Amino acid sequence: MTQTADPRAGKPGTDASRVPAPQECAVPEPAAIGRIIEQSWQRSAAYGLDAHSLPDFSPLGRAELALLVERNRLLYRHALPVMETLHEQIAGTHSMVVLTDAGGTIVHSVGDDDFLRKADRVALRPGAGWSEQCKGTNAIGTAIAERVPSLVHAGQHYLRANHFLTCSAAPIFDHEGKVVGVLDVSGEQHSYHRHTMALVRMSAQMIENQLFSAVFQDAITLHFHSRPEFIGTLMEGIASFTPGGRFLSANRNGLFQLGLPLAALRAHSLPSLFGLPVSALMDHYRSAAPGLLDLCLHSGVRVYARAELRLANRLSPAELPAAAAAPRMASLRALDTGDAQVAGLLAKVEKVIGRDIPVMITGETGTGKELLARAIHQDSPRAGGPFVAVNCAAIPESLIESELFGYEDGAFTGARKKGSAGKIVQAHGGTLFLDEIGDMPLAMQARLLRVLQERTVTPLGGRAAIPVDVALVCATHRNLRDMIAARAFREDLYYRLNGLVVKLPALRDRRDLAQVIDRLLMLESAGSRPARVSEEAMALFRRHAWPGNIRQLASLLRTALLMAGEGGEIRPEHLPEDFLEDVTADTAQTGHAQPAGLQQIALSAMEQALREHGGNVSAAARALGISRNTMYRRLRPAQRTPRQ
Ligand SMILES: Nc1ncnc2c1ncn2[C@@H]1O[C@H](COP(=O)(O)OP(=O)(O)OP(=O)(O)O)[C@@H](O)[C@H]1O
What we know:
Elements: H1 30-46, H2 62-71, H3 73-90, E1 95-101, E2 106-111, H4 113-121, H5 132-135, H6 139-146, E3 150-153, E4 165-173, E5 179-188, H7 196-215, E6 219-225, E7 237-241, E8 247-250, H8 252-258, H9 262-265, H10 270-274, H11 278-286, E9 293-296, E10 302-310, H12 320-325, H13 330-335, H14 340-352, E11 359-362, H15 369-378, E12 387-391, H16 397-405, H17 423-426, E13 431-435, H18 442-454, E14 456-457, E15 466-467, E16 471-476, H19 480-485, H20 491-497, E17 500-503, H21 513-525, E18 532-533, H22 535-543, H23 549-564, E19 569-570, H24 577-590, H25 595-612, H26 617-624, H27 628-640
Parallel strand pairs: 11-16, 11-17, 12-13, 13-16, 18-19
Antiparallel strand pairs: 1-2, 1-5, 3-4, 4-5, 6-7, 6-10, 7-8, 9-10, 14-15
Helix pairs in contact: 3-7, 21-23, 24-25, 25-26, 26-27
Bound molecules: adenosine-5'-triphosphate (ATP).
């Protein structure tokens, strides 16, 4: 039986950042299949795995799993409906559909109950890791290692415990060609069907296309194909451009049709690729009934296209050319929701954009430091280049050097064969965002300083210095001056980094809470009618201290939206119990407001739920998502209050 679909097989020297074109995803020759599995087995042995060992049964705990889902929220949201559909197609075949993150940890699964129980025995469940390092040769891990769709059947699994499985997995790529996750169908080996791999590949591509559309919110997007009937199908090419017409990215079919790798396309524009000036596109869409565009690619190939103009603030077509002429304002302007402090800092940032002045963003966790860094990039002349974010606190100290500066072939034990370019080189021509810069070890600070002074990077184990041109944005929630005094941060590096220092205010200090909420609800509603927030709920929001700032608010609204239903009104009873408790505690601590008023709101929610459920405490508690005991606890003292 054929096993691993490796489009790149037999093509040594393939660039690891290259996204496989769709036509490459054919089943390879048996010899190539054997080679892929063999190499994967060699890697598995090198990881020190024992084929007879039991699978690793230490999946993530509930909180860690929730964090994993949160970190992969965009992927999760777009993959979920595709997974459900895929499951419907394979239901009853003793199998399951699995989604993992970029590292092979299972984020979500849906499947046939009987098989889920068996899968549980080999830790094929959310929170468990299926990278090759954890489980040896398996479709998920091998798809990540090889960046291609992989089918691993029965005895081809490295661990004997997994021999009863047949698994078909396809990597999911983002708009920068990075693997962001894997979609997999796993089943009992006798459930093998040769169409499963095709279904998985198509589903992965569907998720990629949706992710692509979600990323470019402030852009001109062309949907194109040489055959007009393919526009709107999985076969269409999609390419996005800044409002000024600079190339941003293309989906997998788009790259294939354009015939150039991403890096080369970044030097292009709408006119240079499609022979279409932005003004002509605007004119076309100002006509009463714009049909498909009939265009000629730079390669001479004729294509048909439909354009989507998703530009800032949803301007009318008559206003679009003006927007196209002033693209720099676009995404920074979107962050200006009415707070004077934020508006002031955005105006300062505007002045230094594109001028080679590093920006240092400070502020508590979740205040939007990374979002601001992205907006700076998006509005800069480097928008067509890469935006590379590095969280210095999240990388183990031993890896930070190779991660940032790259390494040459065989620089250290465990180094990948072809070496790695490192994040600084990856950001060439674009923006490097160093998050949590205060967590960078001192030795690395010295190296970074040298890179900034010399504008070259010398990878670990390498001799040649690589010239780099990056705009630098840093962020930290630490006080770097204190760190300098404690000799934990280099003063010379500090002065190199803080060209412009801006501080994002904590959410509790912002005067535009209602507008931030509106914006978040609008983003969540993705086109449908956004929900509203009742006055009572708003009163609670205003009293909360928001230690997690906008991230916490966004997450709370997401949960509340689910409770309130689409387009509904978010009321106190839709808010999680621990939030209500926190607000009461905040209020008691600060002494600002009347706890009695807050309790009254919570009480009204409970009383209403009780009325709606005919006085049945269990049913009302269930509807509110709180325990029966809490309900009794809350209702009893309040009912006694008048007599006490
Ligand atoms: N002005 C805003 N409008 C809408 N969403 C926002 C805004 N600011 C931040 N967010 C959202 O809040 C979340 C946290 O933002 P971000 O990651 O930029 O914060 P941060 O300050 O970098 O956090 P940390 O310090 O923990 O890394 C993200 O989901 C982001 O999209």
